[in-house]
# Entry
Amino acid sequence: MQLDAVTVLGMGNMGCALIRALTKGGHRVTAWNRSDRSQQAAKLGIALAKNTITAIEASEVIIACLSSYEATHQVLESEEARRALEGKTLIQLSTGLPEEAMALAQWAAENRVPYLDGKIAVVPESIGLESAVIFWAGKKTVFRRHVATLRSLAGNPVYVGADVTAASKGDFAFLCYFFLSTIGILYGTAFWQASGLDQKQYLSLIPNFAADILGRLPSFRRALSSGDFTSEIQSTLKVDLNGAKLLAMSAQRLGLLWDPANFMVDCFRRGVDSGLAEKDTAALATVFRGS
# Structure
């Protein structure tokens, strides 16, 4: 099977990670960046285009990994760039709002450019791994046509539908997990240090903690699918609230910034105040949805 030739617009940390994964996957890669990246391109073993037009003309697939949707529009809005793009596939990998994805998809359609909106759910060093996840939205025919390229970027390319806004929505759901778990790890580290304990010991235990949380996923799935939050109780919201209150009190006494602890208290309190005190923690999802 002949692999796509790919142009990557943007050579930041993520852009370079994409380039490394594509070259490892056997793709011919051309790149462009606003500022000079000739030394970086040489190290990566790729061609560096002098301008966006030659970059677009070099490949069938154009990946935009710029700072924003607006930056992508600025790079592609010239008449010359539009002509060069016609018939090629544009893949957008910048983080942005669903309405920005819709606007760029409409622009692409008006200019006869097949379009996929992608959202990366990993850090740069995980790009190209079998476990890496990227959400993809757009026409399924376009997704299937380039799936080999998409697998070079992430071993788990998740197609979320023809609605181009779906990838952004999936990305924000991922960021709920990513940001809150990251804050949890770092807040726990700060608490451990403030308690006079060895942070290396705490950090070494994170995989154990994570395994215990992930172990609850099967019961979460069953409870959220059935709406039954009493059959498989691992912890009730009342118990969770009491634990969060004690955490917040202890954090205050240690002199920690206690906004994160208060946020936990507020979440569990809302569940309890909604009449779910004796329900499993999974019931909190219904509170977040406002149902």
Summary: The first strand starts at residue 6 and ends at 9. The chain is about 55% helix and 10% strand.
